[in-house]
Amino acid sequence: MGQVVVITGVADGMGKEAAKLLAAAGDTIVGFDMNQTGIDALQKELDEISRASGKSHHLVALNITDRPGILRFRDDVLAKYGRVDTVLSNVGIGFFSPFEEADLDAAQRCLEINIIGTAAIFQAFIPAMRRQGSGKLIAMSSLVGQVPFPFESIYSASKFAVEGMVMSLRYEVAPFGIRVALIQPAQVSTSFAATIHTLPPEGSPYRERARRFIARDDVLIKSAPTPQQAGRRIAAVVRQARPAFHNQLDFMSTFFLFLNRFLPVRLRDAILLNHMDIK
User: Fold this and answer.
1) What is the spatial distance between Cα 92 and Cα 9, in angstroms, rounded to a whole number?
2) What is the pTM of this model?
């Protein structure tokens, strides 16, 4: 019998690819995204994938900041399927800016979506998992949740917070048979970075280094895992009964997390600054 898997941010990118792979493996996908067009298209794909098995998937258009909406979604899912086996918190937005020049209202929105959004979807389904005595909570973090990158201070803060929250949460839910895991990609070859990479204005003391950072990032993205490759790794973690707590999608994240763990800070920083061409 397949799992019932909740996925947020499911309409495109690696969330969409993971959903299709999980459906093909026999899992039931329930999830949401703000993108109604993307939701409708994925619903058709999932229904086609599962036509032979007769499995019914449930996707809706919903904003992760709509907390009453999340609870209604939770109630609908439990009424329809009776249980949820895995929740994958995949929704998130990026933020790129020199810290000194960061728009703090926009920063607050990033923190609300990335941190509280993860908290809201986990909190919604923990009671059902606790009652059934099993379940998995998987949060999409990032390399920058442990290795802070310049010009990504707000985004790094959001992912550091997600990791701290999940590391603490796992102690609380473990006695109820609920397992917790993180997925920590470095980069995925999508438009995610391009949508946030904006040069500081003319006259900014950070403009030239930010320009070099963006140029280097654009080069790295070309060789980053595709959404399909990332989706395969994510689906593999979701399918595991006892996933590892830390999971990476690519060599870069594994390599930098290794350096972060064992190298002196000064040497680690020198490698990072050289790697991103911002010495």
Assistant:
1) 7
2) 0.92
